[in-house]
Design a protein that fits this description.
six-stranded antiparallel β-sheet; about 20% strand; eight-stranded parallel beta barrel
Length: about 575
C-alpha cells in the first residue's frame, strides 16, 4: 500500500465486547454476571487475524474512562451516581476522566494505563495503527480527573458558575436552577440497587446538557453529559469569543497530546459539527506540528458543511453517513423509491472534489446491524452495498466488529436497544463469540455460511488495500452509458476504477432477483484504454473469467441476486 494512500481499512471494536466470552447476557446484568472483555484479550493472535482481513487501523472504541454503575471505590475511583449513567457499564461517550483508561477493561485495575500502553505496542508490532475516540462536545456529569499530570488544571476547575456564559468557563450554566434527573429513569433496572440511586443528582446550578440548553433534559436527551464551552455565547446571538484562546482549547490540546505521545495514531472525533470549526482549525494543525502523521476522522452529518470541516477545520476524513450510507441502506433494504442514481448524487454533488476524504461504512456502533430485521435481516443482502462502500473511491472504509460474521444485535440488554449491539451494557456478542471461540480467534464455532461471509469480507478488503486501481485509481461512472442497455434498471450500479497499470469494472446488483445485462464501456474509455476486439475479464472476488469477442459491443454479464463483480481487465 502506498503510504500516502487514503484507503485506510478500519476495524472498529469495543474491547468491552470484543474479548468477552461470557454468554449469559442477562438483561441489565452486572460485570460479574455478563462478563467484560479486557484490553489483554486483544492479543497477538487476535491482531494477526484482524490484520489478515486487510485491516490497516484498529479503532479501539470506549477505552477512555467513562461514568459507570460498577463500583471501583476500592481502587480509589469515585463512585458515579447511577441516576446520570446510561446502562450498567455506562456510555463510552460520557467521559469521566480524559487522562485515564476504563477500569472495566483492565485485568489489573491499578495498571490499566500500562495495559493500554502494551495494547498500543502489540497493535503496532502487528503492523496496525491505533485510533481512539475523542469526544469534544460533552463529558460526564461526574467528570473529574484523578489521573491528570501534575500541574494540569481540570476541566471546569476554574469556572465561575454564577455566570451562564463566560469565555473563561469550560461549561455553560443554567443559573438559579438545579439539575433534574429525567422522570421515569430507572438506572440499572429493578434489580440494581445503590445508595446513590434515588432519582436525584446534586448539581446546582445545573450545567447545560450535552445536546439541550436546559436543567431538565428528557430521558431521550444526552442527560448524562454536560456540554463543553468553546467560547461561543449561545445565549447572546452565538457571539464568538476566541481571542484570547479560551482555556478549554489548551486543556483539550494537552489531552490529545498526552494520548499521541502514548503512540495513538489517530482520533475519531465525535459529533464534530457541535463544536466550532475555528477550534478544529486551531488544534489539528497544532497537534500535527508535534505529531505529523496523526489522522483526524470527524463524525459529520451535514454535507453542506463538509468542505468547511475539511478545508477550514483541517480534518483528514469525515463520515459519509447521510450520503452514501443512507443511499446504500435504502437499496439494501429494497425500499420503495430506492435508486442507484442516489449514489451518483453523492459523488457528483454532495462530496464532489472531496471524495477521498469521505469515510464509508455500512455498520458502526450507532447504526443498526445489517443482519437485524430492522435493517436487512440477512447479512448477505449487504454484498453489493459493501462492494460499493469499499471501492467507490480512494477514501477509507470501516467495518464494525461482528459485521463480518453477520451479528444481528438482537434484543435489548438494558439501556441499549434492539438492533444495535449495546454500548451501554455488559454483554456478549453471540455471533462474534463463535469466531472468538473462547479466545482462540479461529472461527471454529462459525457456520459454513458465516465462514463464507467472513471470507467475502477478507477478499473484498484485501482487494481494496492491495489493488492499485481500487486504492488509488481514477473513477468513471458507467450509469449513463448503460441506462438504455437491455437489462439495466435502477438497482444496478456500474463504474470503472483505473490507473495506468490496472483497471477494474465494478458491477453491483442491489436487485433481489437475477439480472442479465450487456454492460457497455463508454467510447471515450475504450479510446483511453486503447481497447478493441476480444477482451478477457477476471472477477477478483471469485476468480471466474468472462470474455467478450468485441468490447465495442460490450460484455454480456449474468448477475445473481444481491451480488457484485469486480472485473479486472
Amino acid at each position: 500500500m502506498d503510504p500516502q494512500s487514503h484507503k485506510l481499512i478500519i476495524y472498529q471494536l469495543l474491547p468491552r465486547l470484543f474479548g468477552n466470552a461470557n454468554t449469559t447476557n442477562k438483561f441489565y446484568g452486572s460485570i460479574e454476571e455478563n462478563g467484560c472483555g479486557k484490553l489483554n484479550d486483544i492479543n497477538d493472535t487476535a491482531l494477526t487475524e484482524i490484520k489478515k482481513l486487510g485491516i490497516t487501523h484498529v479503532f479501539y472504541c470506549g477505552v477512555i474512562e467513562h461514568a459507570t454503575m460498577t463500583d471501583y471505590t476500592k481502587f480509589g475511583i469515585k463512585l458515579d451516581d447511577p441516576d446520570v449513567v446510561k446502562g450498567r457499564a455506562g456510555s463510552p461517550y460520557a467521559i469521566k476522566d480524559y487522562y485515564d483508561i476504563d477500569p472495566d477493561l483492565a485485568v489489573d485495575v491499578n495498571n490499566r494505563i500500562g495495559e493500554f500502553d502494551e495494547l498500543v505496542k502489540r497493535t503496532h508490532a502487528n503492523g496496525l495503527k491505533v485510533i481512539i475516540d475523542f469526544i469534544p462536545n460533552h463529558v460526564a456529569r461526574t467528570y473529574a480527573s484523578d489521573a491528570k499530570p501534575d500541574g494540569v488544571r481540570d476541566i471546569g476547575q476554574d469556572d465561575d458558575n454564577t455566570k451562564a456564559f463566560s469565555p473563561k468557563n469550560d461549561f455553560y450554566y443554567v443559573c438559579g436552577q438545579s439539575f433534574v434527573v429525567p422522570q421515569g429513569y430507572n438506572p440499572g433496572g429493578d434489580g440494581f440497587s445503590s445508595p446513590l440511586k434515588d432519582g436525584k443528582f446534586d448539581e446546582h446550578p445545573a450545567k447545560v446538557t450535552g445536546n439541550a440548553f436546559t436543567a431538565t433534559p428528557s430521558i431521550n436527551d444526552w442527560f448524562e453529559t454536560v456540554k463543553l464551552n468553546y467560547g461561543l455565547d449561545c445565549l447572546n446571538n452565538y457571539t464568538p469569543h476566541y481571542d484570547p484562546i479560551p482555556p478549554l482549547w489548551n486543556k483539550l490540546y494537552d489531552i490529545l497530546d498526552y494520548w499521541s505521545n502514548k503512540g495513538v495514531d489517530g482520533f475519531r472525533c465525535d459529533m464534530i459539527e457541535y463544536v466550532q470549526v475555528e477550534f478544529w482549525g486551531w488544534i489539528i494543525p497544532k497537534l500535527k506540528e508535534a505529531h505529523p502523521d496523526l489522522i483526524f476522522i470527524g463524525e459529520a452529518y451535514h454535507y453542506s458543511l463538509y468542505n468547511k470541516y475539511i478545508f477550514d477545520g483541517k480534518f483528514d476524513y469525515l463520515y459519509d453517513k447521510t450520503g452514501l450510507y443512507d443511499a446504500v441502506k435504502k437499496l439494501t433494504r429494497n425500499e420503495w423509491g430506492a435508486s442507484a442514481w442516489s449514489i451518483n448524487n453523492v459523488w457528483n454533488n454532495e462530496t464532489k472534489g472531496i471524495d477521498e476524504h469521505m469515510l464509508r461504512f455500512m455498520e458502526n456502533h450507532d447504526e443498526e446491524r445489517i443482519a437485524h430485521n430492522a435493517f436487512a435481516g440477512n447479512p448477505w443482502l449487504a454484498i453489493p452495498g459493501m462492494i460499493v462502500t469499499a471501492t467507490l473511491n480512494t477514501g477509507p472504509v470501516m467495518i464494525y466488529s461482528g459485521q463480518e460474521v453477520g451479528e444481528p444485535g438482537n434484543g435489548s440488554m438494558g439501556f441499549g436497544g434492539d438492533s444495535r449491539t449495546s454500548i451501554f451494557d455488559y454483554c456478549g456478542v453471540p455471533e462474534h463469540q463463535k469466531w472468538l471461540n473462547n479466545g482462540k480467534f479461529d472461527g471454529a464455532q462459525l457456520s459454513i455460511e458465516q465462514k463464507n461471509l467472513r471470507d467475502f469480507y477478507h477478499t473484498l478488503l484485501n482487494i481494496a488495500i492491495n489493488n492499485e486501481a481500487i486504492h488509488s485509481g481514477e473513477f468513471y461512472e458507467l450509469m449513463v452509458a448503460n441506462e438504455h442497455q437491455p437489462g439495466f434498471n435502477q438497482g444496478l450500479y456500474i463504474y470503472v476504477r483505473y490507473t495506468a497499470k490496472q483497471r477494474v469494472l465494478v458491477i453491483a446488483n442491489f436487485n433481489r432477483d437475477e439480472h442479465n445485462i450487456q454492460v457497455a464501456l463508454a467510447g471515450d474509455l475504450l479510446s483511453k484504454f486503447n481497447l478493441s476486439g476480444s477482451i478477457e475479464f477476471t472477477d477478483l472476488l471469485k476468480g471466474v473469467k468472462y470474455n467478450t469477442p468485441d468490447i465495442a459491443q460490450g460484455l454480456n454479464i449474468f448477475l445473481h441476486a444481491t451480488s457484485g463483480l469486480l472485473l479486472e481487465f
